[in-house]
Design a protein that fits this description.
Elements (H helix, E strand, L loop, with lengths): L8 E7 L7 E7 L3 H12 L7 E6 L31 H12 L5
Antiparallel strand pairs: 1-2, 1-3
């Protein structure tokens, strides 16, 4: 290994209790995934409760930046899913029925 090179970086996630969500607790450098798991156990699970431990190569994680927040805006109007989407429903239904009256025998 060259003097300025370093081992790959791994992100560490810990699940503290059964049924709880895994939480990101930190990062570490290790030569391979097996050693990353050993180092993560020593660093993040030795002194506190842990039921599951995950190590993930940092390069395998994809993320968005805050500048890309528009990706999470709905592409279409979904106001029908909100209570406000049902405002004036009676009036709209009556207008629709009035338009249908000439068509019905």
């Amino acid at each position: 290994m060259e003097p300025l090179e370093h081992w790959p970086t791994y992100e560490v996630f810990v699940q503290r209790t059964r049924g709880s969500h895994a939480q990101h607790v930190g990062s570490l450098h290790a030569p391979d995934p097996d050693m990353a798991l050993v180092l993560a156990k020593e660093q993040y699970a030795r002194r506190s409760q842990c039921v599951a431990l995950w190590v993930v190569p940092t390069e395998a994680i994809l993320w968005t930046s805050p500048e890309e927040e528009d990706l999470f805006q709905p592409a279409t109007d979904k106001s029908y899913r909100e209570p406000q989407g049902y405002l004036n429903t009676r009036e709209r239904l009556e207008k629709f029925r009035d338009r249908l009256k000439p068509l019905t025998p």
